[in-house]
Amino acid sequence: MNVNFAERAHNHNWKLDPIVRSLLDTDFYKLLMLQFIWKNFPKIHVTSEVTNRTVSVRLSEHIATAMLVDQMEHVRGLRFRRSEIIWLAGNTFYGTRSIFEPAFLEWLERDFRLSDYKVTEHNGQIVVRFEGLWTEVTMWEVYGLALVSEMKTRAALSTLSELELDVLYAQAKTKLWEKMERLRAVPEVRISEFGTRRRHSFLWQEYVVEVMRMALGPSLSGTSNTFLAYKHDLEAMGTNAHELPMAMAALARDDEELHASQYRVLELWQKSYGGELLIMLPDTFGTTQFLAGAPDWVADWTGQRCDSKDPFVAGDEYVAWLTERGRDAKKKRLIASDGLDVGDILRLHDYFHGRIRFSAGWGTLLTNDFRGCHPRGETALEPISLVCKLMTVEGRPAVKLSDNARKSTGPAEEIERYRRVFGSVAVEGALVTV
């Protein structure tokens, strides 16, 4: 990929360079979840919100809301292209053909629209709120995060000369290659690129993916970015996220139904998907309580993604749980994905190798690691912790407890109720950096 990043960044106001160029420019799991929502919850209304957990960075002082709205209106004007629909219909994902139903793809091409939104400023932060049918709101998550993240990047780049931009990208390329060299020394490692939502820019993410493909060969399992998978003939990676159990919980009519909702969502999911897509994400309301109360059939799922818990602890807990349930952990998959960098990936691979099929979902510190690269030594290009979470479902508050209490979301009184119902203990984990 021969991109002059310095020249391109210097001229970033080109209409030629919208931040989101295709509705496929999203994580693959959003499409799987969209089909699930379209099939099971087509009339449910929700709200969600993009917020910045790194409150020390006052985004409203760097990003002009009018420019952000211009980019969001561009995204709202996009439609799925016929060639993209054909690819989704005919491609094999996770070894399965026709994973997307013809009726869903017809709806996606003909009727899919993004919901209304509102951009406001509050305490120095930009807040983007989405409201509408769940099928119209859910896809905003990754688009919204990528837009805000790259708007922050463009603001920082606009203060640099073209020569300084040359230096910046030379240092970033060197840093990226040094990471690749460390990984090349361990060919058994398996990595998926997960960096869309908090990327430095689309162009840099594409460059990173191409470098990984060249440097790592079969160690690169694929990319979560559906557009890059489509464009570069890579495996599209991803399964599901916290949004589903959060919504199911919010719809529960009483405490008993609330507790059961974390397993009910798995029952519904496996009616649509199977095999490698049966990856559970048990930390929405606490991993330990989830595993303790899980029906036996949950142990037949293909694997687990650990997000907010220390992955060494979460992996050991999962292996022990599988063994207690009479399942062979070596046949299962463990995916770590929270704030990983190359050192973490290599340590985790070494720790779990031969015990379980370990793979890493490498995100922000792959596609947005410009720490120490700024030619003036500034921190303006360092990544921040942007999130987009469900706020309400049919007017009821949506809650996430997490294994790290710093990541809990929802009204305080509802968080306390959920902790009582699920029996989750508030554990303050590592500081949230990305």
UniProtKB/TrEMBL annotation:
All residue ranges annotated as the Nicotinate phosphoribosyltransferase N-terminal domain in the record: 24-149
Q: Which branch of life, at top level?
A: Bacteria
One term under GO cellular component: cytosol
Catalytic activity reported: 5-phospho-alpha-D-ribose 1-diphosphate + nicotinate + ATP + H2O = nicotinate beta-D-ribonucleotide + ADP + phosphate + diphosphate
PTM description: Transiently phosphorylated on a His residue during the reaction cycle. Phosphorylation strongly increases the affinity for substrates and increases the rate of nicotinate D-ribonucleotide production. Dephosphorylation regenerates the low-affinity form of the enzyme, leading to product release.
Q: In which pathway does it act?
A: Cofactor biosynthesis; NAD(+) biosynthesis; nicotinate D-ribonucleotide from nicotinate: step 1/1
- Which GO MF terms are attached to this record? glycosyltransferase activity; nicotinate phosphoribosyltransferase activity
Could you say which residues form the signal peptide?
none
Pfam families found in the cross-reference section: NAPRTase, NAPRTase_N
Where exactly are the transmembrane stretches of this chain?
A: none
Question: What's its EC?
Answer: 6.3.4.21
**Family of this protein:** Belongs to the NAPRTase family.
> Protein name, please?
Nicotinate phosphoribosyltransferase
**Which species is listed as the source?**
Tunturiibacter lichenicola
The record lists the lineage as: Bacteria, Pseudomonadati, Acidobacteriota, Terriglobia, Terriglobales
